Amino acid sequence: MNSADFKTNTFRRKATNLTAVSVVLVLSLLKYDLSFARLIRISHASRSLTVLPAFVAVEEGFFKKEGLEVELIQMRSNIGTMALMNDEVAYTLSYAGTLEPALKGLPIQILMVLSDSPHYLVARKEYATIHDLKGKVFGVSRLGGSLEYATGRIVEHYGIKREEIKIISVGDEPVRRIALERGLIAATLLSPPGPVLARKKGFNVLMWVGDIVFSPQSLLATQKQRLEKKKDEVKAVVRAMVRATDFISRSENQSRVGAVISRYFGVKPEDAAECLQLILPALVKNGILEEKKVKASIEETAKRSHIQNPPRAEQIFDFSLAREVMTRQ
C-alpha cells in the first residue's frame, strides 16, 4: 500500500461515524425517482451565489439534458469532503474544503473553478472607511482559513498592520451577519447576497476583495477514481456547469437568473438584480482558472496549512474536460 492509499483509507475510517450521522441519515430520508435519470448528489458549503452556476444548471434543465438528476445538498465543507471520499456525494463545490485535503494527499480532482474572490468587506454603519477599522474586531469563518488570510492582506494594503486588528472565528456567513448586527464584530467578508442584505440594514459595503487579493471560494471536484471509471458522467456534469456559467453571463438572461437567485437564496425579487451584478465579476469564465492563479492558490494554501512539498498543479487541477466542452460548443 502506497502513502496515498494509506492516507485515503485512514481518512475514510475516521470519517465513517461522523459522516453517517450528518449525511447518511439525512439522505436516507430523501426519496428519489431514479427511473428516468442517473441521480447525482453534489455538496456545497454555503447558500451563497458562489454556487449559483449549479442552481442555474438545475433550474434551467442543463443537467437533465445530460440525462442527470442532480440533488444539491448543503453541508459544512469538511463534511462534504468526507461524504465525497465515502461516495455519499459524487461531487463537491467547496474550494477551501477540497484543495487543502487534496494537497495533503487525498485523491481529489478539481475540474472547474466557479468563483474567484467573490467577497466584499462589510462594516457596521459607524465605520465609513477601512482606516476606521484600525484596532477593531473582524469576524471570519475559521482561524487559519482563506478569509483570515484575505482579511490580513486587505488591511495591510491600506497601511494597517495585521497586529493592529483582531480577527476572531465566528462561523458561516449567516452567523457572521448576526454578529455584525449585534455589534460583536466591526467588519467581516461576505459574498453575495450577503452584502446586499447587509446594506439594506444600514451597514457599509466598503470594497470588493477581488480588487486586492485572490481568494477563490467555489469549484467543481470529484474523486480521481470517478474521473477514471465514469468519465462520460463527469464530462456531462462539467458540460452542464459550463453552460450554466455562460448562461449567467449573458445580459439577455438576467431576469431568469434573477428568478433563480430569488427562489433559492433568500433574496427579494427587487434585490436579485443587484446581487447578480455583485457576483458577476467573480465568476470564472468557462470554469478555467488562469495558471498563475492556480499556482498562487496552491502556494498560499500550502503555506497557511503548513504543507511541505505540495503536489504539482497538474496533479490536482485538470481543466481538460472544460476545455473540450468549450471547443465543441
Report on this structure.
- The longest helix is centred in the N-terminal third of the chain and has 26 residues, at 3-28.
- This protein starts with a helix and ends with a helix.
- The chain has a five-stranded mixed β-sheet with strand order 2-1-3-10-4, sandwiched between helices. A five-stranded mixed β-sheet has the order 7-6-8-5-9, sandwiched between helices.
- The chain folds into two domains: 3-116 and 216-328, D-Maltodextrin-Binding Protein, domain 2 (3-Layer(aba) Sandwich); 120-211, Periplasmic binding protein-like II (D-Maltodextrin-Binding Protein, domain 2), CATH 3.40.190.10.
- It is built from 15 helices and ten strands.
- Helix 4 (77-85) crosses helix 5 (96-103).
- It is of the alpha/beta class and 329 residues long.
